[in-house]
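Friendly challenge for the regulars: who can give me the structure tokens for this chain first? No prize, just bragging rights.
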Amino acid sequence: MAPRTALFTSLAAAAALACAAGPAAAAPAQDTSVTAGVPPCVSTDNYNDASGKVAWVWNACGNTQKARVVIGWGPDSDCFTIPPGTGAAYHYTFGNYGTTETC
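First reply, four minutes later:
Bragging rights claimed.
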């Protein structure tokens, strides 16, 4: 068994390394615009409102896009047909936003 001072020193060194690594070592925040298979001009914003959670899919492309919202541990949206310069909202009460994908 290691002496307590050696164990404490090892733990302190590990903590110092973790702090020195900074934010790069921390888990990244969820990027709410992450999309799977949709063009970069389609983005998704997630927020809470009085009725629950909302995933807002915005089409900034020059043509109509079809997309659906995938919810982890909850029901996915139907396929939205979104004309250029408009968006579609998917309201859900449980689960977490996963991704937006073409359909």
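The chain has a mean pLDDT of 78. The two ends are 59 Å apart (CA to CA). Your move, everyone else.
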